[in-house]
Amino acid sequence: MPTYVVRARDTKGNLRREKITADTPSEARTSLRERGLFVQELTEDRGLIETLNSLDLKEIQHVLTSVTVKDKAVFSRQFAVLINAGVAMVRGLGILSEQCPNPKLKKALQEVSSDVQQGTNLSDSMRKHPHCFDNLYVSMVQAGEIGGVLDEVMNRLAKLLEDVARLQNQIKSAMTYPVAVGFIAITVFLGMTLFLLPIFADIFESLDAELPVFTAFMMGISAFLRGPEQLPGLNILVIIAVTVVLVFAYRQYYKTKVGRETMDRLFLKMPLFGDLVQKTATARFCRTFGALSRSGVPILTALEIVRDTAGNQVISNAIDEARKEVQTGGMISLALQREKVFPIMAIQMISIGEETGEIDTMLMKVADFYEDEVEQAVKALTSIMEPIMILVLGGMVGSILVAMYLPIFSIMDAIK
Questions:
Q1: In what order do the strands lie in the sheet with 38-44?
Q2: pLDDT tens digits for range 204-240
Q3: What are phi and psi of 18, to 5 degrees?
């Protein structure tokens, strides 16, 4: 006999939730009505195993999968080739959706193909899938449709996305080494502190040795991390919990407008990393703005899109000021110069582009220059971080060894 979960209101209007067993849903409703309950919702209570079996694995995979920059770049390049070869748009979308390895992008392309087949514009169809195609992508596609140069725009989009992906990979590769070494250093330090130091502590205690200050300090850290004997590991759990709370608090603070602006301004002023953040943002701004302008997107719309995709609130504010300046008939370079966020050389080259009427060409040159600068900065940062992380790892392990051997030297001196 099946069990049903019921949401109902009693004669006093109070909402109640309970379970009832009956042969059919109508029998369950009749039974509840006799008890003075007015059913609002009645669903069958399925067991855990049945619930798991009923889950659509493809739907779960679709939700968990994200569309990467590389996925969009590959699609854009292939779509441009098909259009340039004279393949009909609907057929091209069908071909690409069939061979697309990303389930989320595959489903979106299938729906876009269906919409286009029914007469909807490609850009309007893509706009329905913001998780796959952002405002930048849709705006460039729309400009390509209006100008009749969709294949050229898709090639530009592919080049833009490939450059963004390459830039992201460079930054990720620069961070891989310090993160890996830092994780190893912390693991080794905790292992030696939790398991090796207590053995030596027992030996020193049995010899009644007087511990040096540094050794006593390291023994105190070991005792704290091990926690009380009744609840070993409690302090480590407390540290983990505090860390999780701090990370959550930081994310919540960063979601606020003031918090995001404060932290992004701090990132721009950080030693070593601040210069890299500025150059990366400059390259992204110039590449995106140049691609939009070259594709025929109106300048105010292009500035709005670039503002929303800047990735740094301080730089977004500077771009917004430039947009307001253009609205009043001013120049972009003057507004950017007042904000003092972008490098002077980039502003001067943008100014020259405005004066000569070739701002898109100049923006692309600036983007090429600063992408090379970012590549060099990443290499320099990696070369600096490698010896620093080795010193950190050596210092953490060395501190444990020094703490263990200092009392031994004192004991040997006492024996002599």
A1: 15-21, 3-9, 38-44
A2: 777 777 778 888 888 888 888 887 766 666 777 888 8
A3: -155, 175
